[in-house]
Write a structure and sequence with these properties.
By secondary structure, this protein is of the alpha+beta class. The chain contains 1 helix and 6 strands.
Length: about 90
């Protein structure tokens, strides 16, 4: 027979872990990258060179683009799971 207190205690631990770890995983997936646009296909993708590395992001209908996005411009990309949520062209 299973001890009810043991089951409830285990369930409490699992809930606590989920509450603490859940937001941490959600935050870890978001990233901000600032760099120079090396490739851009309107409505599809943008590639940014940052700290010597190329990072490609998908652009979709929900991506917010602030400014005149073009190859050679400096941008800040906020992305989650490789999809650009916001692209800000720097002056």
């Amino acid at each position: 027979m299973v001890d009810r207190r043991h089951v409830l205690a285990s369930l409490g631990v699992l809930v606590a872990v989920a509450l603490v770890a859940g937001p941490a995983f959600a935050l870890a997936a978001e990233e901000k990258v600032t760099g120079k646009v090396t490739a851009y296909e309107a409505g599809k993708s943008v590639t940014v060179e940052s700290n010597g590395a190329q990072k490609a992001f998908t652009i979709n209908e929900e991506t917010q683009i602030e400014g005149d996005l073009a190859v050679g411009k400096t941008v800040e990309v906020t992305a989650k799971d490789g999809v650009a949520a916001k692209i800000v062209v720097k002056k």
